[in-house]
Design goal:
6 helices; alpha+beta; 15 strands; Structural Genomics Hypothetical 15.5 Kd Protein In mrcA-pckA Intergenic Region, Chain A; 2 domains; single chain; nine-stranded mixed β-sheet; elongated
């Protein structure tokens, strides 16, 4: 693959307006709840399907009215007969034409294949999270009838890409198709290929990482590689090969054989090829300061879901989709190609 200027944006279909309505919830405080805290009463009576802490945040933001007046004190003691009205924040949707708008590589009546931009999470961190996500975009585009097998906050979501990971993902619009795709991921018949820009020099042209993963007890948002087979560990295998070699860096093509959380990032860091820009998985002596002078500075982990192949659940046809490199990834890759040729080729 030689240096090139790549454009990953695919013009979206605009038949459905991208807007999600807010839902007004209301109730009257009964005698039995007189003297309780406002947040406790609102959670019980209005049942907004969020945590108490998120409801408290909504109250402080002015989303709750008491007797038609905005009330921002979650700990206010309530009286019987008070009228409560809660208008949760409307879920935010990536605006058309914005950097966070997903591209559409394919869509039909039962599924869609998206080009997810870096910076857009697949779904909120918890129920009631109104920030833009693939989930809010899907609901705005396709309506409220998407499969919610993985939770009401994850409509249509079949598999996940990390927030900062760009590239191909498939979503389901039909419950039967959702189940079929989940089965394909479970039996590992889905083929996934990633590209990663990494620090370091690979020892081989290609290899396979077979290291189990476990939650890091010191950092819960991080995975740790281990050879232990204890119950809290999970098997994980990743095949990788060098796509392009630079002086001190490499473009690595990765094929994960399993689909564990942070698998590609953790495995590459374990073999001293940490992904450039990754804040969690850094090998010793590597960091942003090692980029050459004048190089574009990444603002995210430079990992890209490049290709995805699966069997269409209705037609049985094997389909493969590819997402071109986004601008930030391509810019640093092209810079390294021009300024950091390898002094010694791999054996």
């Amino acid at each position: 693959m030689g240096p090139q200027t790549l454009d990953c944006r695919v013009p979206p279909v605009t038949s459905t307006p991208l807007a999600l309505p807010a839902r007004l919830l209301h109730a009257t405080v009964p005698d039995a709840l007189r003297g309780e805290r406002l947040d406790v009463v609102a959670l019980e009576l209005l049942q907004p399907e969020v945590s108490r802490s998120r409801l408290q945040a909504w109250i402080k933001e002015g989303c709750l009215r008491v007797n038609q007046e905005v009330e921002r004190r979650p700990g206010l003691v309530v009286e019987s007969g008070w009228k409560l009205e809660l208008l949760p924040p409307a879920p935010e949707v990536p605006e058309p034409g914005s950097p966070l708008e997903p591209g559409i590589l394919f869509e039909d009546d039962v599924l869609a294949v998206l080009d997810k931009p870096a910076g857009l999470p697949m779904h909120g961190n918890s129920p009631g999270d109104a920030r833009p996500s693939v989930a809010t975009w899907l609901t705005a585009r396709y309506g409220p009838g998407l499969p919610i097998v993985q939770g009401a906050d994850r409509p249509g979501i079949v598999h996940r890409l990390d927030r900062d990971t760009s590239g191909v993902c498939v979503v389901a619009r039909d419950p039967g198709v959702f189940a079929d795709l989940m089965g394909q991921f479970a039996d590992r018949s889905v083929q996934k290929h990633y590209l990663a820009l990494c620090y370091g020099r690979p020892r081989f042209r290609s290899d396979r990482v077979d290291l189990r993963l476990m939650p890091d007890p010191q950092r819960p948002n991080r995975q740790r590689t281990t050879r232990s087979e204890a119950a809290h560990t999970r098997d994980a295998q990743t095949f990788w090969e060098v796509a392009e070699l630079f002086e001190g860096f490499a473009l690595i093509a990765v094929k994960p054989e399993t689909g564990r959380r942070h698998q590609v990032r953790a495995h590459l860091a374990a073999i001293d090829l940490p992904v450039i820009g990754d804040p969690l998985y850094r090998a010793k002596n590597y960091g942003p300061g090692l980029l050459p002078e004048g190089a574009p500075q990444p603002e995210r982990t430079l990992l890209h879901a490049w290709r995805l192949s699966f069997q269409h659940p209705l037609t049985g046809e094997r389909k493969e989709y590819e997402a071109q490199l986004p601008e930030d990834f391509a810019a640093l890759r092209n810079f390294l190609h021009a300024h950091c040729p390898p002094s010694v080729p791999l054996a």
